Amino acid sequence: MLGIAQLTPRHTRPRNLRFGLLHRKSPEILVHHPAQQSCPSSSAKLSSTPRVTSSVVSLRPLPRSSLTEARSSWSAAKLLRCVGHERVVRAAWLIQVLFYSIEISGEFFRNKLKFHAYLRKANRFNPTRGPFHFRAPSRVFYKTIRGMIPHKTARGMAALERLKVFEGIPTPYDKVKRQVVPQALRVLRLKPGRKYCTVGRLSKEVGWKYEGVVERLEERRKVKSAAYYAKKKAVDAKKETATKAQAEVNGKLAALGY
Predict the structure, then answer these.
(1) pLDDT less than 50: residues of the chain
(2) Is residue 77 within 8 Å of residue 4, measured between CB atoms?
(3) Are strands 93-96 and 163-165 parallel, antiparallel or unpaired?
(4) What pLDDT does residue 174 have?
(5) Which residue spans within 132-217 are E strands per DSSP?
(6) What confidence tens digit (pLDDT) does each residue in 51-87 have?
(7) pTM exceeds cut of 0.85
(8) What ranges do the domains of the chain cover?
(9) How many CA atoms lie within 13 A of 85 on its CB side?
(10) What residues contact 90, with CB distance under 8 A and at least 6 apart?
(11) CATH code of the domain occupying 4-209
(12) Contact call for residues 106 and 17 (beta carbons, < 8 A)
């Protein structure tokens, strides 16, 4: 893999990366810090110097008391930029959604051949002992992250316990502000004109059977989310109007320390 030797020490190189550079195309990252009781607001900023930029996530450093920051970088026979995935151990929890829309560099057919080569790797005398080949986009991504951290240690196990991955956006998280890592966007990472494909299509071709189900549920979610957002905007507009109407009173209270 081009770039791994130069960017990561030998003992920390990812073991099970098979395909092209992974990219996000929509805001899909939910982060929770220990000091926050609720999910993050839009004010939570992503790190300007992410240590894992190729694929999805890199957040600001957290206090040493917080334990795990799930990090990801899928990668490529062509390009891999996953420097320092040892920092995958630093936040309270990280939720990543809409995995079927992740984009990989390289044309679809070529990536499909690589995946089929990966599927042929099995235990010779008892395939049920592994390696296990996940087809669902979220599980493929999960296995990639697992190969980048010390997942057999208590610290690594705790890190993976705090990572949640979903194909769509399930109920608890559909009303939560989502974020995207700009450094991982395809439009910024790939040269214009380069071929790419989605993990959802690739997974469907190698045995994932629930693309239609996820798409149907996503259509329902989008309708509900649009209604929820319209209602939220109306409430926010009323709050702003009320605040402006009471600006004089608020000013006097502020002068008194309230």
Answers:
(1) 1-88
(2) no
(3) parallel
(4) 87
(5) 163-165, 196-198
(6) 333 333 333 333 333 323 333 333 222 222 333 344 4
(7) no
(8) 4-209, 219-255
(9) 35
(10) 61, 62, 66, 67, 68, 69
(11) 3.90.1180.10
(12) no
